Fold:
Amino acid sequence: MRCFRFLLTLLALSLAAACQSTQVAPIDTAHQPLALAPDERKLWDEAQHVQRRIEAIGLVYTNVELEAYIHSVAVRLVADQLQNPGLELKVRVLREPYRNAFVLPNGTFYITTGMLACLDNEAELAFLLGHETTHYTHRHLLKEKRGASNRKVWVDIFGGTSVLVGLGPILGEISSTWATSAFFGYSQELETEADEHGLEEMVQTGYDPQASLTVFKYLGEEEELDSLVTKERDLTHPRMKERVDHCRELLVTRYGAAVVEPGRRINQDEYYAQIQQLLLDNAALDEAAGRPEFARRAVDKYVARWPDCAPGYFSRGEICRRSQDPNVRAQGQAAYREAVRLDPGYAEPHRELGLLYRSEGQLQEARDEFAAYAALSTQAIDTRTILRYVSELDAELAASPAP
Structure:
């Protein structure tokens, strides 16, 4: 998957190309402690550096339970490979709204909050994990590195900034190669292998393999929004449509029986239980990144799933109030009021209602909402400011002629 492949490739490009065999045995075929060749050891060392820097610059979305859940799904998929004493799979979630996932050559798997927010069930997560862990267990990055000097590399230049957000400083530390903004993805052979193994692992562990197609849809939406500008494209790299078509063919042929088999796992409830707060957190990230449509989708998903939870309506109000459309702003007011109805002790909706009413000249309503916020948030950093608003509005109301 595109999913930050630039980072993996950059790690490889930072090393001198060596004339070594690209016929690398998958890790899962080895039963002795993993022995790394010098060039692969270098890749692992670079990966550890990337890990340390990601942690240092605060990109990690801290949720121990969520990481443990994702790790448990991954372990079910690659239990046999994890028996190798030299292999350890780690999971980290990145605070990024962009839909991405990638695995470093040492087995650290990263997935963004944006990717988790768009997924709808555990089966979809399983396909994503199966694909990325195949890149790891089959040592695809090492194969790419060793074959790079013998393959014509075409260059993709991304017009947007999404692929660089947060990771730019890290890339600059690893290699000056990134100064050209050039990178390439896995070959068609390796991407196809990862797709096929991802499906195989889903089927073997009891998931519904049809969920794989939805993952491609989510990634396609991200690419479309990303405004990917292709300067030249590696003809060996499969386009999304080709990969989808190949997976559809496998679902009809190789996995036809699994598709119609009753009882295949989706585990939607289990998945939603893990991403409840993340949906709203990532919606705020999408909104800040200028992706309001994705933000609205996440909030709508939250409200549909938890219609009696006030935070969902507050987040909906936050999105609507920034709109220039009066009708949408009115929806924001309704959302804030619903949040207050569901949780009378929820302070923030009162403040935002106060700001909206004040901007629209509804002085009494604004004054009442500000006063309610101040009463509920006596220790908040902005309480003094809100109390000043109350005083100002009291003065304006007192000076206004009686109706």
User: Anything to note?
Assistant: Residues 5-260 form one domain.
